[in-house]
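Example is below:
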Amino acid sequence: MENAMKPLEPKTIRPPFGHYSSGVAVDAPQKLVVTSGQLGVGPDDVAPPDVLEQARICFANCGAILAEAGLGPQHAIRVAGFVTRREDFAAYMQARDEWLADAPVKPASTLLIVTGFTRPEFLVEVEVTAALS
């Protein structure tokens, strides 16, 4: 059975703030893929000036890495996002939710505010863990 993932949502804890799972269980994965943090910069080394477009690039880059392993967004079990400003949460979450729109099980998700990245124009970074079971 491909991608036997189960969302974990105990009734004893507060439900997620958005479109993600509190936890995800994967039985006996056949393949596990972990991306490095992907920044919002295209292959031309240009970063758009807004966080939404940068986040879309981050997720597209993660998707390309997963595709190299024969996986896609529907295999994501965990997403970690990093932004430099609290006001960028909504734009980041919009890009995340677009990328995961067709995922039958929403992955676990973490979003952190950080002081910055390697270049000042970078506003967001995303890491994805995916599994095939």
Q: What stands out?
A: The mean pLDDT is 94. The CA atoms of residues 73 and 120 lie 29 Å apart.
